[in-house]
Amino acid sequence: RFSITAGFDSQLQVRNDSGRTPFRGSNNLTLPENWVSGLTTDQWTELDSSLRGFERELARDRYYLDLNARLNDRWQLDTTLSYEDRQGDAEIGAAIYTDAASGDAALLPREVDYRNTELELGLRYDDDQLHLDGRFEYADFDNQEDRLTWQNPYSSFSPSVRYPEGTGGVALAPDSTLMRGRLTGLYMFSPVARLQFDGSYGVTEQDQDYLPYSVNDALRVDEPLPRTDLGGELATSTLNTRLLLKPLPKLDAELRYKVLDRDYDNPRDGYRYIRGDGTNQPRSALTVYNTSHDYLAQTLGLELAYRLPWWRSRLSFDYDFEWIDRENAAVEETDEDRLTLGLRVRPTSSLGARLELHYADRAASTYQWDQSYYALLDAELINATPDNQRYITHPELSQYHLSNRERSEVRLDLDYSPGTRWTLAMNLKWRDDDFDKTNLGLESSEWQRIHLSANYAASSALNLSVYGGFDRFESSQTGRAFRGGQEKNAFAIYPPLPQASDPSRDWDVDATDDSFTLGANLSWQPVEELALTLDYSFVDTVAEQAMSDAGAADLMPRDLPDVDTRLHQVTAGGEWLFRENLSLALEYQYYRYSSDDWSWQGVQTDTIGKVLTFGERNPNEQIHYVGASVRYHWQ
């Protein structure tokens, strides 16, 4: 009737640690005293002698306590309290700048020190017709560090901004709290009709005090922050209901409705923030405004499944209609129809097949490319900007998740047992996405897949399985290269065309990702007290990107080099039942991982003039792991 569970879970994540940095400290980074600055990284004569390695490890410790009490035959109470501590080192990109075109950038190590507390209270009720599960959840996220500061290694800009006086700052994840209630249940109207439901309502709050406009006290601030904190609140409501019916002996039906509602309650203010800690507070025309992004998604669905009289087959039809309303987005509403036709047959006891045909059509309302422009910027700046330059992203550039799209998909699964010991299986899948109304952006994507597997049961004690697969993902997207000023006019139709209006300045990239998988598994129990396992897997992926252009004389794109990654993994283990309540286990794992990513090859810390990198090498790792355990069961 009552149980208590206490637990501790510790995990360590280790990432590529071949990088080096000249910075010292944790979240207040400084440079060595002998630092020699310059406008670009190649002018830092003491950089090599200043570099030092740093660990990129994240340790997570979680403590939890579960209480469960059965109050009577129908009521049950349970609660969970957990505390998680995450500490270690990660990285972040940052820059000191006055506008986006002139940044002095650096990759920086940063200290991670998170605390997360979660409480869940649950009450459950069960009888023959009604099953209810109600829960209250509370979560508190606490970041011990509110910002990262670093000493400017560059000698650009004014004396108060350049080395050694200049300092940059980046805000880190703010503290937040979440409270949520959730109710799930099942009601049996009759043996052929039942209702399932799952609903929740949660509120997330974030009211951490604002940091100042700049960490550099030498920069002038004429207008203070409009508020001391955001005072933001996000209410999230969900509902998922299913009515399951059996109107005929061979017919199953399902009606469903799903809704997700996100409601932002954030006061809207103007902020004259200092760009990149690089200069004094800008003029009032450069004020920017925060915006809310309310979101409402609803789905109505119907599924019918009928058992046919031959080959133990089953025919199914599935239809969903989804409509989404958004606030302060380029598209206010999208509607999508999704249809799936399925057929499952088993003509013999040894042969089975399942075929699915899927089609989806998403239609978007008028693309409002200027929505983000007018929501973000101040009227003074908007009025001073020519009409044909009032946009942030090119008016013809469509965000793929908001664009019209037609999706076609076919999936075929086959399984065959030629004998009592053999089982063979094949999985085929093809999916095509066509963004037929998109001029600039993602235009199409295609996914092809074939996976094969075989399993051989030599006896009840010996089993062998092998598998292999190939996946190919292809996509095509288009962009346009153009400068600002007069060349930013995207609405001209008569020659000579400015760059933003000129289709000859379009560029295309066709990307192909191929993935090959191969593996085998052997399990053997030579005697009742001993069980052995051996597993091997191999994954090889190749990424290709082919570039082309529409003919502009100054555009000469070249294909990016292929990126090939390989992973070999071997796992061997055994468990020996020493006594009825005592067992010993050993495990060995071997990993071999390598990559030839061109973005890391030959890139030292000072290779890019305006970006200080870590100079990481491509991973070429071998890892050996040995584990041993003793399991004892109290009788």
First and last CA, distance: 20 Å
Strand content: over 45%
Strand segment tally = 30
What class would the helix/strand composition place it in?
A: mainly beta
Largest sheet: 23 strands, mixed
Indicate the percent of residues in helices.
under 10%
Taking pLDDT < 50 over at least 5 consecutive residues as the criterion, the unreliable ranges are none
Oligomeric state, counting identical vs distinct chains: single chain
What value does the average pLDDT take? 95
From the alpha-carbon coordinates, what is the Rg to the nearest angstrom?
Answer: 30 Å
- Overall geometry comes to globular
Task: Give me the number of helical elements.
Answer: 3
Give a written overview of the molecule.
This protein is globular. The protein has helices at 47-50, 371-376, 379-384; strands at 2-14, 20-21, 28-29, 52-53, 57-70, 75-96, 104-126, 130-143, 147-151, 167-171, 176-190, 193-206, 232-248, 251-265, 270-271, 288-289, 295-307, 314-326, 333-348, 351-364, 405-416, 422-434, 441-457, 462-480, 506-527, 530-549, 560-579, 582-595, 611-612, 620-632. The longest helix has 6 residues, at 371-376. It has a 23-stranded mixed sheet that branches. It has a 3-stranded mixed sheet with strand order 3-9-10, with no helix packed on it. By secondary structure, the chain is an all-beta fold. The protein has 3 helices and 30 strands. 3% of the residues lie in helices and 59% in strands.
